[in-house]
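[step 3/7] fold_predict: job queued, chain A
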Amino acid sequence: MITISVCMIVKDEEPVIRRCLSCVKCFADEIIVIDTGSQDQTAAISREMGALVDTFAWNDDFAAARNSSFSRATKDYIFWLDADDVIDEVNQRKLCELKQHLDPSVDVVMMRYAMAHAKGATPIVFERERLLKRSCGFHWQGRIHETIATKGTILHSDITICHQKEVVNDPDRNLRIFQIMRQNDEPFSPRDWFYYARELNDHGQRAAAIQAYETFLSQEGWVEDQLQACYDLGVCHLRNNDREQALQAYLRSFSYEVPTSRICNAIGFWFLDVQCYAQAAYWFDQALRSTHRGGFENEDEHLFLPMLELAICYYYLKENELARAWFEAAKAQHPSHSLIIKNEPYFKREQG
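[step 4/7] structure written:
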């Protein structure tokens, strides 16, 4: 049986740290918490929960802080978490089983990461490198949105970690760090350009965001980021009332990968907005058919959303039987969803 070091970096996580650490006690052989400057009881609670707590002088570099936590690990494998991550009982049991039976030749175990940006929202699910063999010397890279370049034997598991953020302590932090990097003429990786663009976009700086997305797309980046950048570019252009540029941005994604559900839905909405219902229905149908997961997508984009929009398209095309069928299919996915409740009277009226 392998042994596991759980490694974390934290700052002012008093509301959630106990919840997080209670999720790992069943499989962790040691818990290492690196505090980057908490002013609350985060460190005291972590020690109370059995963690080894050390400090790291924060220098606007997440990779450096995570590498500091990894350097203190002593067990066979390292499992990283954020303080606002949660592992439910089902996935705790899966982790215990993995610990019991993992082939030591495995270097990296990928796990699902479910991120909900608001309570009750459908989470975005994607894979992250989560359990790493310590002897491989894996190293975090990137001051912001840090990542690890994986290598060796990789196992893809269905274990899911849920990211449940309660409070955003400093919503301007990431943009501020990027701006400092630019002021200091620090080189940007393609990944840096992508996330810099997203921060600009999130802060309403659309013109600068568009320029940063274009800079990213002119380089060799991860295909998941390229697809997301095309989608984000389309949204930026729509907010600028530049519909043609928005459509071109969506279509541009096809040069990187086969159509994803998110892009197909976006094109469907583009045609729906101009009441081209047959064209819109075509693209929502393509969203249902897409088997490719393009990075930051959620499950509703593959089933519920295109089903509901197909119902609406066929309603306006006066193909009532198809409209009702697609509405019932969407309703079966989320019977109490606000969009189902809002639209149901229209389809009941058609039945009447």
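[step 5/7] annotate
Strands lie at 4-10, 30-35, 52-55, 77-81, 85-86, 108-115, 124-133, 140-141, 147-148, 154-163.
DSSP finds 14 helices and ten strands in the chain.
exit 0
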